[in-house]
Amino acid sequence: MVDKVAKGHRLVMVNRELIELSGVRKVQSFDPKEIVLETELGILSVKGNQLGIKLLNLEEGLVDLEGSVDALIYHRNSSSNSRRGFLNRVFR
User: Coiled-coil stretches, from where to where (predicted)?
Assistant: First the structure.
């Protein structure tokens, strides 16, 4: 369905049951109710039920998820902020 060449971050969702992602750097956590991914644009949480990883190719930055999707959340404190020290975040 989606051209599988990763150029930047792309998210395609079909019927709230299938998500095709590009630009994924890392899977931070995974369980059937929430999958947390580090993308080129920051941290993405996918919340729902019976979530699973259908395709995982981190060399190309590709991930396909399946299950019942309830929410997609991009977190403000992306990977760039998490790499900074605690004191830098407090005193910015």
Answer: none
Domains of the chain as residue ranges with CATH: 10-75 (2.60.40.2000)
Distance CA 85, CA 10 (A): 29
Ordered alpha helix ranges (H), 1-92:
79-82, 86-90
